[in-house]
Amino acid sequence: MVDSSKTLGSSQPIRRGSLYIFLRQRSTIAFMMVLPLLLIIGCLVAYPFFYSIYLSTLNKAETAFVGISNFLFLFKRETFWMVVQQSVTFALIAVVFKALIGFIAAHAVNNIPSKGQRKWRGMMLVPWVIPPALSTLGWWWLFEPTYSSFNWILEALGLSAIPWLSDTFWARFSIILVNVWVGAPFFLIMYLAALKSIPEDLYEAASIDGASAWQKLIHVTIPMMRNIISITVLFSIIVTFANFDIVRVLTQGGPRNSTHLFASYSFRVGIESGDIPLGAAVSLFMFPVLAVLAFIILRNVRQRTVNI
Amino acid sequence: MADVTLTNLHKRFDRTEAVSGIDLEIKNNEFVVLVGPSGCGKSTTLRMIAGLEEVTEGEILIGGELVNDVPPKDRDIAMVFQNYALYPHMTVFQNMSFGLRLRKYPKDDIKKRVEEAAEVLGITELLNRRPKQLSGGQRQRVAMGRAIVRNPRVFLFDEPLSNLDAKLRGQMRIEIKRVHQHLKTTTVYVTHDQVEAMTLADRVVVMNAGLIDQVGTPGELYHSPRTRFVAGFIGSPAMNFLDCELSELDGGLVVKVGSELSLPVSSGRLERYRPYVGKPLTLGIRPEHVTEERVDRDGVSLSVDVDFVEPLGMETMVYFSLAGEALCGRVAPELNPQPGQSAKVCFDTEQIHIFDRSTDLAL
Questions:
Q1: Rounded CA gap, A4 and B153, in Å?
Q2: Do B188 and B118 belong to one domain?
Q3: Residues of chain B that touch chain A, judged by Cβ-Cβ distance less than 8 Å
Q4: How far off is chain A from B72, nearest CA to CA, in Å?
Q5: B84 and B223 part of one domain
Q6: Final residue of a structural domain among B233, B251, B276
């Protein structure tokens, strides 16, 4: 005979409260696990971002709300537009050169037999690993007008010395040069990883299909690397626009503000000149442009990922 | 269309010799399969024919022309890769037409050729898809389409079916055979699967340790293996091998496996086998020739203890030990052998193979 009450009692689920069920849900557990990261991002990114938006709407004394007056004020200032132009030119030239040099160097390293490759990879990463403020100080010594190695070499070759950091053209050139030197290894390592992920048999199939080395580059390598190229360029554009340390150490924005970028100009206006709301407005200026750029690039990357 | 001739072909990677001097003539329109275990040099040989590996020593002629130093694109060959090697960013049409576009064929001609090839392979409706949207079998068809669209002199296949499941592999084998019968292009096909080799090839080349062990039709390899390696490699399940000796008996010869088994040698083989009396030899017999007793067959019956069985429906594989060796027989399912019980099996004396143990060559 079956003891029905006992059977029923033992198989009946224990009633739990709704809070217990909520906490047992996978989505809740997942959320709880990422919560510390969300809090860190909230503290270090979201809060400063929204706070700087708030600051940019205040007057110089930070006592009154002025709406978009700070932005309107900036639009009327010639120096600001010079900084916009400089930042765009600087970012475009620097990113193009970093991408090109990184691409060529990645191919060169990829073609080194694997035995010696690690050594070269390590050496080529050095500029990226050294803190930029420190390495820029080294460059500052190299550019120094009287005793620098560059000018010493030029003079030894019978050429005239170059005012690296005091002439507008050469100062801009120097800043881009140092930025490319620091940033190219990042492209190198990203492109190298992308190159290594391309299956060798695609190149072999292309060889049999009749592709030359150039055609393999155009029809196999670049399409296969496109997502990495896009993301690397996007990332680099963002950090290049926001560059501060190279300008700060090398030229402090001079001569005559001709090497200021958004970050260094924002520092000059906000910290050195004591107009923090105006500095916040400068630093926020590129945000919509970069956000749109990031949206377009990431959307293309996502579409390609779905198709390929 | 072209002959392919390999003469004293060697390939060395640093200190390792992958191919140790092979000679092979592949006739025009012929379907030749290179088969062998991993590391036997079959893929390296194919890659040397394709021009993807440099030849260390020897000659490769395609259509009578020495191609050792000719780049792959100028050899007029097409290759189907193990992993398909389809360009993931291109559609099926673009994949198939890539070689033609690089060679600057007129657009109309490209379209016509691709559509014709797609029709032959039944992939017309897939032309606008990308490889990611295709199944394994469809990708394999596209890879074949890319090869046939150029109408090359030679097709090269590098283990093209090894990534497919068993059912699809069977279908694609038929597909490849059908395409070859339709196009009649000289084909070199590499596989480690002897079933593929036997079913597809006009001639099979069995390779072992960088050398060719035997070249022959599937029937020749099955019935008259030249070496013990070939005998063991061709056929599934593999041939049974037992140490044996030849002895004289009443003017005839018997193959003696210890004290347990004596198989009389048929009169047609007596003269060939007689010089090997008393020498250490190996007896080879395929599972399909170790069966239940049959009225239509001459053989020697033996009662054996069954270790385990594999019922396959149409037949049952029965495993047992003899003279310290594990053997496999193939019996009718009605016999219903059971592990631990004894069963009577019959060795077909007409189907035995004897190998010299010192050289592993067949007598």
A1: 81
A2: yes
A3: 50-52, 71-73, 77-79, 81-83, 85-89, 98-99, 102-103, 130, 132, 146
A4: 5
A5: yes
A6: B233
What's domain A76-307's superfamily in CATH?
A: MetI-like (1.10.3720.10)
Same-domain status, B216 and B127: yes
Q: What's chain A's length in residues? A: 308
B102:A307 CB<8 A: no
pLDDT beyond 90 at B258: no
How would residue A14 be classed by pLDDT, with cut points 50, 70 and 90? low
pLDDT score recorded for residue A5: 43
Specify the amino acid at residue B92. Answer: V
| A55-58 own/partner pairs: CB under 8 Å, 24+ apart | A55/A276, A55/A277, A55/A280, A56/A277, A56/A278, A56/A280, A56/A281, A56/A284, A57/A277, A58/A277
CA distances from A282 to A58, A87, A293, B130 (A): 13, 12, 19, 46
- Whether the per-residue pLDDT at A306 is higher than 80: the answer is no
Residue of B nearest to A303 (CA): B89
Q: What is the pLDDT of residues B65-117, one digit of tens each?
A: 999 999 999 999 999 998 999 999 999 999 999 999 999 999 999 999 999 99
Q: With contact defined as beta carbons under 8 Å apart, do A154 and A162 qualify?
A: yes
Q: Please give the ipTM for the structure prediction.
A: 0.85
Which range of residues forms the domain containing residue B336?
240-356
Q: What is the DSSP string of B64-102?
A: TEE-TTS-GGGTTEEEE-TT----TTS-HHHHHHHHHHH
By the 8 A CB rule, do A275 and A269 touch? yes
The pLDDT-based confidence of B284 (bands split at 50, 70, 90) is very high
pLDDT tens-place string over residues A142-196: 998 777 888 889 889 998 888 889 899 999 999 999 999 999 999 999 999 999 9
The answer to whether residue B363 is domain-embedded is: no
Q: What is the nearest CA distance from B73 to chain A, expressed in angstroms?
A: 4
